[in-house]
Amino acid sequence: MDLQSKLLSAEKAILFMQQDHATTLKGLHQEIEHLQRKCSELTFKMAMQVTSVNADDSFTRKQVEALDEQLLAEKRYSLELQEDIKKRDTKIRFCDQKAIAKESQYVQVSRAMLTKSLLSDIKIP
């Protein structure tokens, strides 16, 4: 495989990673937005139920506690997704830097080989 095809392959790999990263981030952001809406709905629902709870209504208290637990779980999940996004961003930046370094290396080697080839073609008497 010559340097040009390796360079082209590296560029295609970078493009694929960037597109995959964008798709993943979009999906994670949509999931976070969905969870935030759900969190808001649960908070509102809980607030509405809390206002109607009287001191003797243990069933409603159980519902409120269950909603509190569900809300806490949703918040934890949202934080986990945000951490996943940060980790993926870090990995993508690393891969991008690595690909750029490889591309630079290929360009340097290609130039050196081209220069050597051109110099060998020039015959000095």
Give a topology summary.
Blueprint: H1 3-52, H2 58-121
Characterization of the model:
Helices cover 91% and strands 0% of the residues. It has 2 helices and no strands. It has helices at 3-52, 58-121. By secondary structure, it is mainly α. The two termini are 35 Å apart. The mean pLDDT is 85. Helix 1 (3-52) runs antiparallel to helix 2 (58-121).
**Overall 3D shape:** rod-shaped
Number of helices: 2
Helix-strand makeup class: mainly alpha
Please outline the major beta sheet: none
- What is the helical fraction, as a range of percent? over 70%
Overall mean pLDDT:
85
Tell me the number of strands. 0
Radius of gyration over C-alpha positions, nearest whole angstrom = 28 Å
Summarize the structure.
By secondary structure, this protein is an all-alpha fold. Helices cover 91% and strands 0% of the residues.
Keywords:
125 residues; 0% strand; 91% helix; mainly alpha
